[in-house]
Amino acid sequence: MPSSPSATSVPRRQKLAELISDDLKRTIIRDTLAEGDRLPNEKALMALYGCAKGTVREALMILEVEGLITLKTGPNGGAILNAPSMEPASRMLRSFLHFKTLSGGQVYQLRRLLEVEMAVSVVGLLSEEDFATLEHNINECTCHRLDDEDQRRQRFLEIEFHHVLARACPNPLLSFMCQFLNDLLHDLVVIKKAYLPERKQFDQANQHYHDGLITALREQDTERVRQLMTEHMRDAEHHMTALEMEMADQLLVTPEHLKTNH
């Protein structure tokens, strides 16, 4: 006799508010609504979906949490469409992955591929403002940091260099994925304290590759950009792997070991 399916294998039935929010998303796409446009008011939505005010409000709150609308009160209030940022989606995905055993190597398994394609895609698209931002970023990374906070700031600046490139990427999916992976690295820096110990060689390598990338991007040398970013990602992965091994060894030091050594 076949066993009954476990509770975890049965798909959860969506609540009515979730179904309404999904349908409103389809309406936004179908009617090509833009930022600043309004959704129908609560009374119209109640009539359209044949549901109570509380259900409509719950559906609108789902869209608000996802960053798709802003709810305003008053005579000119209602649900106003936003152009959502990537932050809510990135934050939710990162929260999901925090419950997994994620290593720097797994991040770089994707980053080695995507960063290269992203860098190539922005050749000829960067503005003078973009180049000024990239050059300022490098100037802030002096590679002469001493204390923990400065080391942490330097790691964040190095990640931000790649964010600037990703934001200029013409492929929105590739742009999102690269920024998401950068955000994951940002989280790993905080959680694993990946700015400790001080790593002068890593600092200098990052500055070398970033300098070279700016030059190649200014010259619109696509092959050089591809080569530099490929080497940069391999080098960064090597340093990340070495760092994680070093941090893991430190975690193996127990109070008993400390007592023995004193």
From TrEMBL:
Pfam families: FCD, GntR. Residues 14-83 form the HTH gntR-type domain. Keywords: DNA-binding, Transcription, Transcription regulation. Gene3D superfamilies: GntR ligand-binding domain-like (1.20.120.530), Winged helix-like DNA-binding domain superfamily/Winged helix DNA-binding domain (1.10.10.10). CDD domains: WHTH_GntR. GO terms for molecular function: DNA binding; DNA-binding transcription factor activity. PANTHER family: TRANSCRIPTIONAL REGULATOR, GNTR FAMILY, UXU OPERON TRANSCRIPTIONAL REGULATOR. This is FadR family transcriptional regulator.
